[in-house]
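Entry 14. Structure prediction run on the chain below.
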Amino acid sequence: MATTSLITDAPDHRPSNIESTALLAGDGRTVAGTGLKRFMWLLAALSVIGFVGIVFRFINDDGRQDWGFYAATLAWMLTIFGGAPMVAIAPALAKADWVRPVARIASLGAIVTAIIALLMIPLLFKFPALTQFSEVLGDDVRRRSIWFDSPSYAPHFWNFLILLTLALVGIAMAYVMAIPDFAAIRDHGTGWKQRWGKKLARGFYGRPQQWDWLKMRIGITGALYFAMLLYTNFTFSLDFAVSLVPGWKDSLFPFYHTISTFQAGIAFTIIGVWAARRWGGMNKYVGHEQMWSLGKFMLATTLLWFYFFYSSFIVFWYGRSDSDSATIKLLVSGPYIYLFWTVFFLVFIIPWWIMIWNKVRDSVWGPPIAAFIILFGLFLDRIRIYVASWSAVPDDLELAKTSILQDMPNTMWPDVFDVFIMVGLPALGLLSILLVTRLVPLVSLWEIQQSRLITKPVRFLRSHVQLVGKPD
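Output returned:
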């Protein structure tokens, strides 16, 4: 069976095997140029500033509410980098040929989850125990959470373990997907790249049994990563946001958190594809078809974002209990009302209006514009949720006895240390990805080679199309 997909480049513009081998060997196109080196040094400097912000955040700690922006930054990083590998997993399960050139860009986001797991450690020291008022009110008074009869520090241990497991599975998936390229670097590379390629290839020479092994490992790690990403979003959103607000009971919020993770992962991949074309010399590998396909997915997740938000919000709106009204005031109509409406326009209205037009969605510039807007909007959304939640933790013993948020906190504004953290930590994540691309190319060349074996450029009416064969 065969299918067709529209392409805009002429057939003779596809990269040859010689060009792909030269790219792996490191003939200059995988070595960072002057502009990229300067950008990486800038990211390194911003990363140092981020660590300075963490240190001074500890020194100038005036209360738990000061860590809201730190929690929001980690949540945003988990949203972007944690969701990106799903672009390499989900379309591959559907045997989509277009995803092959962007699989590497998407899978590299899993590397940053290990950094997020380490950055969670300082936050755990400020995260309140379940029995924070037990010394005065007794051991039977516990903060409401999903850990009913668990030890007092169960959220601390399990959240770190779950995120660490996600990181290990993600790194394993990214490594397995890169093994054939490591083998090619071993055979055709030079210098330090060849030495590392030999170590990381682990005896892979492309025998049929090894290809079967590779596909099986990719499927297993991909399925595990998908399951762990759902579980991580579930526990992280409930423990670091919902459980801190008295009276906030929302079973749909983890799904809202997860769908925005998928939306951000697609947006991050689109920006990565655009950057690879603009500055990475990858025009022959990624182009119109990838932007078009990713744009459709991003439009779908944008609509799903509104669906899950509305499904969650309507319960509070019609419930109208005291706790429901307090939750709406805290997150929507109260101290963060302007932030909420900004998020609503940046994450839903504007991207939806951009991506519904075929001419825009079918271009190489429309999806990146919408992707930048979405990522910034989701950053503000994480601030709205986590900063509000961390400022609503009751410190007064009388408030701890009630399940209603009675005293609405004021709007929290970031100080200079929060700005350092919000700028430096994402820069550290992006820097780690760029460092890995010094060894392996931005595109998965072995998957592109497999695509060449089952595709054939043909002419259909007035357009050029790719005839894609389905071997199984």
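Strands lie at 2-7, 455-460, 463-469.
Filed with the rest of this week's runs.
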